[in-house]
Design a protein that fits this description.
Blueprint: H1 9-19, H2 24-38, H3 50-59, H4 64-80, H5 82-85, H6 93-100, E1 102-106, E2 115-122, H7 130-147, E3 152-158, H8 164-169, H9 172-184, E4 190-196, H10 202-210, H11 215-218, E5 221-223, H12 230-233, H13 250-263, H14 265-272, H15 289-297
Parallel strand pairs: 2-3, 3-4, 4-5
Antiparallel strand pairs: 1-2
Helix pairs in contact: 2-3, 3-4, 3-7, 6-7, 9-15
């Protein structure tokens, strides 16, 4: 059994830095540039840690300007989308109920090419609360800013227990807001998305998704009627026992995620209090991307 969600990160970090022709020294120099910029942004609620800054640099392929934009939005979006961010602390009953209703975790083993696997499966049909599940995933991202150096994502959704009622709860508004957060804050870098044991009614969700994401990303969605593809993604020693492998069970991997969330409880308590002070922003937001996205969404003809 793995002792931690994030282990072996030093070798992963070195691999990512090599991919972008960076060294620890050059990254540290970039971090200091961002830190000095943060000191000129009085509207932001904190000076971000050097580690988190380095992760934002990495996610933005070490572009200084893009990193500045994403860090600003990391704080700003909490006020722009309060219905998503309010009540998302992992210690809250609604969030505890969410993680207990499903198997939802980051797999401890980073696959080749620095891919971090995120797996999801409901334990029972019609126990899904989409907003809480999605914000649980955002909380995972908070953990990754502190400890993870995996660059890319592989998402695996086992829909064997996903009912029609569950799919109806996943409204277009929630989908749009989720994509907004991932793209505008965390620079969505999905190598592949696997839908396992896929029911026919998922086609409606996919049709809507196709109108929102770029074709390059949509083409990375792979639909399967069973879970056999997992044997191609994982070696037998890390494939969960639930799928015929000899790795930890889904329950064990879920438990590992709960422990990690508890370890970062102080950070989640801090985030509850963090909001930008728009009156102090050096350059005012005018029709920003997030609000523009919402405006476009209202024009969509969704059945």
């Amino acid at each position: 059994m793995f002792q931690d969600v994030f282990y072996g990160m030093e070798s992963v970090r070195q691999k990512v830095y090599k991919e972008f022709n960076k060294t620890q020294e050059s990254v540290s120099e970039d971090v200091q540039i961002i830190r000095k910029w943060l000191q000129t942004q009085p509207h932001l609620p904190e000076i971000m840690s050097d580690i988190a800054i380095s992760k934002f640099l990495m996610l933005n392929k070490f572009s200084i300007e893009k990193t500045k934009q994403k860090i600003d939005m990391y704080y700003t979006i909490r006020s722009l989308l309060p219905d998503m961010y309010d009540q998302c602390n992992p210690k809250l009953p609604c969030m505890k109920a969410a993680i207990d209703s499903c198997y939802f975790f980051l797999h401890p083993v980073v696959l080749e090419e620095s891919n971090r696997v995120c797996m999801f499966k409901l334990k029972k049909p019609n126990t899904n609360t989409p907003r809480e599940i999605i914000m649980l995933g955002m909380n995972f991202t908070e953990l990754r800013l502190a400890e993870d150096y995996a660059m890319y994502d592989v998402w695996i959704f086992d829909l064997a227990t996903y009912s029609l009622n569950d799919s109806l709860k996943l409204t277009p508004s929630i989908i749009v807001k989720t994509l907004t957060i991932y793209e505008k804050v965390f620079s969505l870098r999905v190598k592949a998305l696997y839908l396992l044991n896929t029911p026919s009614y998922i086609s409606n969700i996919l049709a809507f998704l196709k109108t929102l994401v770029k074709p390059k990303l949509f083409n990375r969605i792979h639909i399967h009627q069973d879970a056999e593809v997992l044997k191609e993604i994982f070696s037998d020693d890390i494939l969960p026992k639930d799928y015929g492998g000899s790795g930890p069970s889904l329950e064990q991997l879920n438990g590992l995620m709960k422990v990690k969330l508890e370890q970062f409880q102080d950070r989640f308590d801090q985030l509850d209090q963090m909001r930008v002070d728009e009156s102090l922003r050096p350059e005012k937001l005018v029709n920003n991307d997030i609000l523009g996205f919402h405006g476009n969404f209202k024009k969509l003809n969704v059945d």
